[in-house]
Amino acid sequence: MTASMRQQPAAAPTRQEFAERLLKGSVKKSYAPVVDIDWDAPLEPDKFFLPPRCVSLYDTPMWDEMTREQQIELSRQELVNTLSAGIWFENILNQALLRKIMHQDPTARSVHYELTELGDETRHMVMFGKAIELVGAKPVRPRWWHRVVINALPLGFKGSVLWVAALIGEEIFDSLQRQMMDDDDLQPMVQRLMRIHVTEEARHIQFARDGLRKRAPALGPITRLWVSSINGLGGYFFRYLFTNRIPYLRVGLDADRARRLARTSPHRRQVQISGFAPLAAFLEEVGLMGRVSRRMWRRTGFLPQ
Ligand SMILES: [Fe+2]
Ligand SMILES: [Fe+2]
Description:
Layout: H1 3-7, H2 15-28, H3 33-36, H4 61-65, H5 68-101, H6 109-135, H7 144-152, H8 159-180, H9 188-215, H10 221-230, H11 233-242, H12 245-251, H13 255-264, H14 266-285, H15 291-299
Helix pairs in contact: 2-6, 2-9, 5-6, 5-8, 5-12, 6-9, 8-9, 8-14, 11-15, 12-13
Bound molecules: fe (ii) ion (2 copies).
């Protein structure tokens, strides 16, 4: 091989080569949270469950009116709220992956990776369930008709919509967890849980991004318009989740005032913008951040005004 040939950039890996690489990574670094977290270690009495600056009311008048115990309790209830949503999100992602696999070649590396990802998510669901139990709060469960709607979503998660939905569910939490996990104010169990989750989710995000990079250029104009317009609904979902009334009520706060303050807080907006930034940049890169979506993400506080 001549020097000039060696200098040529390598061709982008195919979907199967990409999946093979992620499979090798999964063999090297995967966790079994049942044994990789010390579930018997007692909680630390004066530590937060989310870093204070990542609690929805931080830097609002209501936060300053609260005692430190109330602030810690709100961080506990907001962690449980997020873990609860994480469980049902991973549930519907797994449902969508299984339905997709039914139509695929079982010898394909991409199918093997999808099954590996599915296994990661089932362990995450156990980890989140055990974490909720350990912190001693009740999970936040969607109402019956919400559960019916949520359970129907995987039927629509196909093709590029599946990968956009996966990224919306994974990337925002991922970038927030990366900001949170090194905070010394945090309970050690929560730190460990976030580190495990971030490590395994990094592969899921790469796989979903690769799927979109390969599919986006070939999308027809109507599908492209649909996918690039619909993803902004994610902003409404996250605004609803992050200002759910249940954690406020459990701490004994005026839930309407708390929600209003959280939704108009400039600090909170900055946290949300930083959490969404990597995904926003990626959606722009692949041409799937449409005008309608951009407006929805901005209105719900995930893009600068
Ligand atoms: Fe996960
Ligand atoms: Fe994931």
